[in-house]
């Protein structure tokens, strides 16, 4: 029994230790969408001009965003997000209208253990998706009734999380803020990143800013599981699992 739980424990932590790779997501696909509040004029992780908050923007889940701290390759990208259905309500809600919105990624949604931004290359979030868009909402740029609802049936209007499809779109022709004269190309907020190195943010925090990781691969292989195994043994002995 102890052996089995140790084994499970190690697999669990090994999976966690393997979250290092960014998600190489397709240009078009499915995701979840949540929403969060961002103060008017706020300069978020990508360093976009504060005026970006006047237009539809979103944070992207860390492992798709491509950086654990500051700028990532997703900065400035535009996606057309279409609401499919909700599933936090019972029964799931399928709207009778199709709602879409073109957002620009200006922020990072940090990787968490179990939340909506917990998706990694190998692990889906609780909505069964690898990617989450965290929409800046409410927003002056988005109608208050953007999210469909059925208040008389559910007793509330905010489902919190939606199952969505997304398409990568050209910011210059599709994003509402593109016509604004504000300088989008500030800090690491390309006006229209295409994935090419001359117009896309590098994974700044991991390549250029975080302290260098001097541990060798062999050291890492032994160091992480060893500490965690110790913790697992202690946790087991003290009846924590
Ligand atoms: C709300 O849900 C109920 C039960 O499914 C349905 O009969 C009704 O037509 C819905 N109303 C709207 C506005 O979607
Ligand atoms: C999200 O939508 C897709 C496509 O319609 C569907 O296959 C999937 O089951 C949905 N997921 C949830 C959690 O509702
Ligand atoms: C976004 O997707 C919706 C639904 O597929 C579509 O009707 C709309 O034209 C798209 N908008 C853009 C800018 O691609
Ligand atoms: C980036 O490089 C591509 C291909 O060389 C070129 O077409 C594009 O204009 C360049 N973009 C910028 C912003 O320099």
From TrEMBL:
Keyword Disulfide bond: no
InterPro entries for this protein: Expansin/allergen_DPBB_dom, RlpA-like_sf
Membrane-spanning segments: 218-240
Matching Pfam families: EXPB1_D1
Keywords: Membrane, Signal, Transmembrane, Transmembrane helix
SUPFAM superfamilies: Barwin-like endoglucanases (SSF50685)
Residues annotated as domain Expansin-like EG45: 43-176
Range of residues in the leader sequence: 1-17
UniProt protein name: RlpA-like double-psi beta-barrel-protein domain-containing protein-containing protein
Organism: Mycena rosella
Source lineage: Eukaryota, Fungi, Dikarya, Basidiomycota, Agaricomycotina
């Amino acid at each position: 029994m102890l052996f089995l739980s140790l084994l499970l424990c190690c697999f669990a932590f090994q999976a966690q230790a393997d979250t290092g790779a960014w998600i190489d997501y397709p240009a078009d696909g499915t995701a979840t969408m949540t929403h969060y509040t961002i103060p008017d004029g706020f300069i978020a992780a990508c360093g976009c001009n504060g005026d970006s908050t006047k237009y539809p923007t979103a944070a992207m889940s860390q492992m798709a965003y491509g950086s654990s701290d500051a700028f990532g390759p997703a900065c400035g990208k535009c996606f057309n997000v279409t609401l499919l259905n909700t599933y936090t309500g019972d029964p799931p809600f399928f709207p009778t209208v199709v709602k879409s919105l073109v957002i620009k990624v200006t922020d990072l949604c940090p990787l968490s253990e179990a939340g909506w931004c917990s998706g990694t290359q190998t692990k889906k979030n609780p909505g069964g998706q690898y990617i989450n868009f965290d929409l800046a909402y409410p927003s002056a740029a988005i109608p208050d009734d953007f999210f469909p609802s059925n208040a008389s049936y559910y007793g509330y209007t905010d489902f919190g999380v939606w199952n969505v499809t997304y398409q990568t779109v050209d910011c210059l022709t599709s994003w509402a803020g593109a016509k604004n004269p504000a300088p989008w190309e500030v800090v690491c907020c390309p006006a229209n990143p295409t994935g090419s190195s001359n117009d896309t943010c590098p994974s700044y925090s991991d390549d250029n800013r975080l302290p260098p990781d001097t541990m060798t691969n062999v050291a890492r292989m032994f160091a992480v599981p060893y500490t965690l195994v110790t913790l697992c043994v202690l946790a087991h002995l003290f009846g924590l699992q």
